[in-house]
Amino acid sequence: MYKKQGTIIAIHAIKQVNDKFKNRTFVVKTDENYPQSVQFELTQDRVDYMDNYKVGDKVDVNFVVNGREWTDPKNGEIKYFNSVVALSVVNLNQSSGSGEAGGADGDDDLPF
Q: Which of 26, 75, 83, 90 has the fewest CB atoms below 10 angstroms from its CB?
């Protein structure tokens, strides 16, 4: 698991991809010498995490990087996709411990 700290600069709407899958993305500008704007993805029951956040909130995001292979059925070309999946979000604007959303303790429902 990885961790990034920064300020929320965008929160997108929940997308119901199909009847079994939904996701939501948000963007954090990191607190580094060379700031990066990193888009994180929330999936399934985690999409509601961002309901209590707003643009401008300083957060700590715990995340994993997932990768997958896809073969284009039209021409057989293989492509690779990466996702930066947030597991938990902690609001650093609030007092310690009160702004946490998600499974920061490592007890999540990921299959690996």
A: 75
Q: How far is CA 67 from the centre of its chain?
A: 14
User: Are 4 and 58 spatial neighbours (Cβ–Cβ below 8 Å)?
Assistant: no
For every residue of the chain, which 3-state class applies, written as one string? CEEEEEEEEEECCCEEEECCEEEEEEEEEECCCCCCEEEEEEEHHHHHHHHHCCCCCEEEEEEEEEEEEEECCCCCCEEEEEEEEEEEEEECCCCCCCCEEECCCCCCCCCC
Q: Note the pLDDT tens digit of each residue in 1-32.
A: 999 999 999 999 999 999 999 999 999 999 99
Nearest by Cα to 17 from 40, 42, 35 = 42
